[in-house]
Each structure stands twice: as C-alpha cells, then as structure tokens.
C-alpha cells in the first residue's frame, strides 16, 4: 500500500467513526454542529500533509510554532494546498506571538490560556492589517495532570470576556481541552469532558454571544469518538491518520555525537602539532600531544577547552 492510499483510507475510517459517534450524541449535545476533523501532522513530512489535503482534508494542526511556520510557508504546500487551514494546538509563549501571527493560512489558535497571551496575539494581528479577525479558543485545564496547560474552569469565562471586550482583532470561538490520558470510558463519561461541557454552559450566558456558533474542541486519537458523543465539535487526530510520530533513536544520536567529538579532538591535536613544528617551537617537541595542545593554547591566550567546545559546536 502506498503512503497516499494509507492516509486516504485512514481519513475515510476516522470520518466514518466521527459520523457514527455524532448519531450517538447525548440529548444535551444533539443540537451542536457536526464535528470538524483537525489532522495533526506533527513530525510528519510535508508530502503527508499534501496527500491528506488531496484526500479532502482541509484543517490541519501543529503543536509547535517553528514547525507550523515551516510547513505553512513550504512552496509545495502553498502551491498544492491553497485552501489549507492551520490550527495552532500547542502551548503558547507571549514572546512568540508575532511569529505565530505571521503563519500563512493561520485559521485558528486553540490554546489561549492567559490575558497576556491574548493581548500579545491581538496586537500582533493588528500590525498585520488583516481583513478578517483571527479565530481563537480558550484552553481549559480540566485534567489534574501537571503536563496539561490551560486556565482553571472557574477562570474560563473571565478570559473569554477579556477576549471579547478587549481584543477586537480576535474572534472568540469556544473552548478547548485535553482530557486525561488513557481514560477508561467503560467507567462512564470522562469527567474532564463533563467539566468542559459545564464551562460551555457558563460561556453561553455571556450577552450578545452567538451561542449556536460556540465550539468545543476536545478529543484526540484515543478518545475522539467519546468526545463527539458528549458534544465535541472539533477533534484533533494525528496517529490514526498519519501513523505514529517519528522519534530520533537516542542511542544512535549518542554514537554519532561521540564520533564527532573524537574527530574534533584528533584534528585539534594535529593542528596544534603542525603549528608547533612549523614555528620551530622546540620547547614543546618533547611533550605529550595533550600537554603540547594546552601549552600552545595558553601561549596564544585561550584555553584548549574553549577550542574544543567551539570546534564541537561548529562541527555538530
């Protein structure tokens, strides 16, 4: 099976599961809009994104701004994916908002978790003189896991109001959360998702807010069906579409670096030995290579450590 066939078949499978889950929605969520699939490509290559796009997928998500920026400006994606819609779904830093705002075809930022972030992003968007507002969501921390980000549920409505009232270039679209990892749905509805639904109810009480358009972004590869049944309108799925993330083998990396270190040390000693002999510095001829290196370094005003470190940096 080719990569193209693999990705397209996976897309069809996930979308079929999403449709089935929509039909099982609880009564309170029956009126919510049909869920949107955000394909999370993460470490996958540009070609995989293009294959998914050709398979009908339009919404794509990335966790890191550098990776999002790189893919969004890739010539192949710009040429072959004119209608692509990028979602930022990773943790944000206020000093990176200018770079985030400049992402090509940025459609939505789902992880606003502070007034500082919202304000910085709003100011960055203003400077770009965009015709349309930037869609954003407030990330809510519904799980007790320390690795999860977001505002506390009790603070969600406060941050939403700040965006609506103080950030004219941002369009508040709803709430986003990441539930606890590996929750067993046989125990009943995920309590993290239930917290999210309660937050959603509170948000709908904000005056003049179009309640029918408010979104709930919850659910990933392991729990997207359950999330949709409870009312999610936006699911983020990666590995079920593109396969598992690709990681660098740590042992291979260590071996590679060790070989480079050895090469730098050997070349450094050869270099200093050459200089010593060419300058007829007989006073170092009887020294061991390591001592010769140190003596010459001291004579010329820098340490052998700094030489090795600088060479290592430039060579790796």
Fold and architecture overview:
This protein has 316 residues and is of the alpha/beta class. The chain has two domains: 3-242, Alpha-Beta Barrel (TIM Barrel); 253-315. 47% of the residues lie in helices and 13% in strands. It is built from 13 helices and eight strands. It has helices at residues 3-23, 46-54, 65-72, 75-80, 97-101, 115-127, 156-166, 191-203, 224-230, 239-242, 250-278, 289-299, 304-315; strands spanning 36-40, 59-62, 85-88, 106-112, 134-139, 170-176, 215-217, 234-237. The protein has an eight-stranded parallel sheet. β3 (85-88), α5 (97-101) and β4 form a beta-alpha-beta unit. α1 packs across α2 (46-54) and α1 packs parallel to α9 (224-230). The two termini are 37 Å apart. Mean pLDDT is 83; it is low at 247-259, 279-287 and 295-316.
């Amino acid at each position: 099976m080719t990569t193209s066939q693999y990705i397209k078949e996976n897309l069809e499978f996930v979308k079929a599961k999403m449709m089935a889950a929509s039909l099982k929605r609880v009564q309170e969520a029956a009126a919510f809009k049909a869920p949107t699939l955000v394909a999370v490509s993460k470490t996958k290559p540009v070609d995989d994104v293009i294959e998914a796009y050709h398979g009908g997928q339009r919404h794509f998500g990335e966790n890191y701004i550098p990776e999002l920026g790189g893919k969004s400006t890739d010539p192949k994606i710009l040429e072959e994916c004119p209608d692509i819609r990028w979602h930022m779904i990773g943790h944000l830093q206020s000093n990176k908002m200018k770079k985030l705002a400049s992402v090509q075809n940025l459609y939505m930022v789902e992880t606003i978790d502070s007034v500082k972030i919202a304000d910085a992003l709003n100011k960055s968007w203003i400077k770009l003189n965009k015709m349309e507002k930037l869609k954003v969501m407030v990330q809510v921390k519904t799980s007790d896991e320390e690795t999860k980000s977001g505002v506390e549920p009790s603070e969600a409505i406060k941050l939403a109001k700040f965006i609506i009232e103080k950030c004219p270039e941002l369009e508040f679209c709803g709430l986003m959360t990441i539930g606890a990892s590996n929750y067993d749905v046989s125990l009943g509805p995920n309590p993290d998702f239930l917290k999210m639904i309660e937050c959603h109810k509170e948000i709908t009480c904000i005056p003049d807010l179009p309640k029918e358009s408010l979104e709930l972004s919850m659910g990933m590869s392991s729990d997207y069906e359950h999330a949709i049944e409870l009312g999610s309108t936006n699911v983020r799925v990666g590995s079920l579409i593109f396969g598992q993330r690709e990681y660098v083998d740590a042992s291979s990396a260590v071996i590679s670096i060790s070989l480079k270190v050895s090469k730098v040390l050997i070349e450094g000693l050869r270099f200093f030995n050459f200089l010593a002999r060419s300058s007829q510095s007989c006073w170092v001829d009887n020294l061991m290579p390591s001592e010769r290196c140190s003596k010459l370094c001291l004579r010329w005003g820098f340490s052998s450590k700094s030489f090795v470190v600088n060479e290592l940096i430039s060579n790796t």
